[in-house]
Every structure is written in C-alpha cells, then in structure tokens.
C-alpha cells in the first residue's frame, strides 16, 4: 500500500538504540507485536505492544502500534486512549508532511469513523489528506464525506482514489452507491459493473446491480425487470448472499414477468390462482442498496459493529440566480442543521479485504518537525483572473484551522442558535453561534452559519472572515465555498469572487448555480464576455428548463 511505510528491524534499532549490539526488550516486544499483527492475532499483538509502551513510554510509535492492535481487536476505547498518548508525545509535529507521525491523523480518523464520531473523523482524515493523496487517504476521506451526507464530496474523493488504484472493486462498488444516492443511476450501474469486471467474485457489486435494475433502472432501459431477475440469481449463487430480502424481490419480479392468466365465469371475470401466497411487494433494502461494503481492513482490519450512521443533514444550497445581464451571486441563508440530525442507513456488512490489508505504520527515521502547513488550493486550480483597474481586491486573512474540543455544551448552544436562525432571529443567532465558538472553536457549521447570519445583516467584512475559518476547517465544503464567493461578490471583490467560484467548480464541476453566478460576475463586472458565455452555456446544459433559461438564451443571442 502506498501509505504504508515498513518498520524494519534495522531501522527500529537505529532509531531506538543506536549502536546497541542486541535487541532491547522494548524493541523485541514491538517486533513480536508486529509479527502477531501480520498473523491477524490483534489481541496477542496488543499484549506485546502494551509491554513495549511500559519499556519505551516516550516512544510514540509504540503507542501508535498499540492503538492499531486494539482497534483491530475491537477495543475502540482502548485504541483511542493509545492514539491520544501518541499524539501527546509528538504534539504538532504530526501536522508536518515530512514527519512520520502524520499517520496518527489518519489512524485516529479511521477510529472515529468506527466510533460513529463522523464530524471528528472528517476533520482528521481531511488533515491527513492535505499531506497525503494515497488511495487509502482518498478512499477514507470519501467515506467520511459519505457518512456526513456530502455525497458529491464523496464522489470526488472516490474518483481520486480510483486514479491511484483503478482496479479496486471495493472503491468502484462504493462509488456506485454514492452515485445512486445522487440519483445518477446510469453511472452507478457502470461503476458496479466495473467492480465486477475487476473482481468477478465480488458479490456485493452483483447484488447492487440487481437492486439498481429492479428499483432504480436508468430511464429507457428495456427489459430491466428480466435483467434484474438474472442479476439476483447470479447474486444468490454466492454463499454469503442476503437470501431473505432477495427471495422477496425475486418473487415480486416473477409475478410481474409472468402474470396469472384470467378466466371467465358466467360473464364475470376472476383471477385464476388468486391464492398464490406471493409475498407482498417490498423494497429490498433501503438506500444505499444491499448493505454496500465498507473496506474496514484496507488499513486497519476492524469488525464493523456500527448499524446506523449519525450524519449531519446538509441543507441544499437552493441558490436562486438572477436573469442576465443583471445576475448577481446569491447564497442560501438557511443555517446548517445541528450535528445530531440523524440519517438512518442500513447495517454495513463486513467485507473481504482489497488488494492489501497491511496497516499504515510510520518509518523510523526521525525528521525535524516543521510548522503545521495551511491548506492552500494549488495555483493550477485557481485560474488567473486579470487585475482590472478600479476593482478592489480582497486581503485574505488565511486563518489557522482551529482544533475541535467536542464540548457537549457547545452542541446544545449550537442547536439553540440554529433554531433562532431558522426563525430569522439574526441577533440571537449571531450571539448563539459566538457562544458556541467560545466553547469549541472547531465547529465548522457554527462558523458557516455565523457567516450567513452576518451577511444577512449586511456585516460583510465579518462574514468573509467567518467563511475563511469555515473553509480552513473544511476546504471542500461546497456550501461554504459558495457562500464565500457570493459574499466576495456582494462586497465588490469581483476578481476574488471569480477565483473562488472557479475553485468551487474545480471540485464540483456540475454545480449549476456556481456556473450561473460566475457567468454573472464575468458579464456584469469583469466584462469578460467569452468566459461569461462559456459558463452560461454550461448552466443551460445542466438545467435546460431552468426558470432563467429564456433570459439566458436571449442574452447569449445578443452576444457577438
């Protein structure tokens, strides 16, 4: 695996006991523990690593290994305790890409996923992804987005993961479930079929194909019921298939494909064989279909015990654009809901390992720590918008990403502030969000909602600063990037607004409101008609029947 760095015997001795002629007891325990981990004996490995931490209490690697072993053994609380001890030992060095302890952010992010602490998992995995773009990093960040309800972000990261390992059936299958959640059944079907192409024995993809053809068939697909029945039969050929649910679905399909004949008696008709005892028509499994797999042993092999995922309900932006040539950016002023909004998902089954099940472990060579890097979107995805005389530029504050404290009072205060915000009690909402951030400055939703409330009151300077903090916490947030760009536009920072819309479209290229708003900035303020036309046309491609489509077409027709 690309992110795994092997802890060799020679390297460990060099790092721990320079010049020693034999293995010290602490190093022996670590070597033995690693062997047991490789042999899939995590409980025995944990005992060895516990011994290593007693002998080498200041070595963060021993604590990291202990966390891995406990995690794999199902001791999630013990795993978290070990990781926290490792974090205490390395401090901010783990934020440096060059320091091996960076893997701690990944490992504890994975742990948070299995503890159903979805927001914390997203923050940790995003921190690691800023430094590492391996398959595992991208895949698990996608999973964190998915369980938080951000399916578009999950799709983006899964595609990046597949660039690293294009033959991963697990990743293709997960991409299909995400695309189905986005109501893109055509591409979802292709993704499931690609998963089977790369691993013909990967039966969950076969099951997902059956459910898709049965319940979510692409429009215009002929004979999808017959195809679904064939897919179910192929799925049932696997010994671990979900037979109960599939049997009901197949009975329903057979009744559709082979309807009972009608017989007539004395001028009245009755259905022959009415007492067929067919089971009632039921939905096989709620979305995502057939308990899509979660490769929990890509990095740390842990039995999946979570049955329901608590996810932040993400409010769609519902941006209403203005017709050209007077289109200006708009943004959703509704607050993001509280963190305890729950989306029920079906149980997730354990799954076979993908290409590798080896854990991520750090290299041994110590590296001088460096300051934690701030995430900056690469310049190549920030198209250059020329400076134009008379147009002001925004001075970015580039705030540091605040660390979350997971304060219980902060959650309660957030709920109260969001309630006031929903009632348009802006002053009360603003005071509430500020109270939340005093208790826990790492609550991304509080920064985002505070920015919206400030913007609604016309306090644009303060709103821009809050949007920057929200993006420092989650740079891939579509809502925060959209709101930031719109606030820049409202503040007459048109060049910077255009740049932010372009950054947004780099991650979400099919986000129609961003194309429409960016076209308005180009047409109305930057006088870049060619760029405006390109984005108006793309907006029409994405929504040809949009309410502003006639006005857009009329504007385009007037352009040379």
The strand count comes to 2
Which structural class matches the secondary elements? mainly alpha
The N- to C-terminal Cα distance equals 54 Å
Architecture of the domain at 379-558, CATH level 2?
A: Alpha Horseshoe
How do the strands of the widest beta sheet line up side by side? Answer: 1-2
Fourth CATH level, the homologous superfamily of the domain at 379-558: Tetratricopeptide repeat domain
The dominant shape is: globular
| Number of DSSP helical runs | 23
Would you give an account of this structure?
With 560 residues, the chain is mainly α. Among the domains are: 167-261 and 281-295, Serine Threonine Protein Phosphatase 5, Tetratricopeptide repeat (Alpha Horseshoe), CATH 1.25.40.10; 379-558, Serine Threonine Protein Phosphatase 5, Tetratricopeptide repeat (Alpha Horseshoe). The protein is built from 23 helices and two strands. It has helices at residues 9-16, 25-38, 42-55, 60-73, 76-90, 103-114, 118-131, 135-147, 151-164, 169-181, 185-198, 203-215, 224-236, 243-257, 408-422, 426-439, 444-456, 460-473, 478-490, 494-507, 512-526, 529-542, 549-558, and strands spanning 262-265, 268-271. A two-stranded antiparallel ribbon has the order 1-2. α4 runs antiparallel to α5 and α13 packs antiparallel against α14 (243-257). The two termini are 54 Å apart. Mean pLDDT is 73; it is low at 1-22, 262-334 and 336-382.
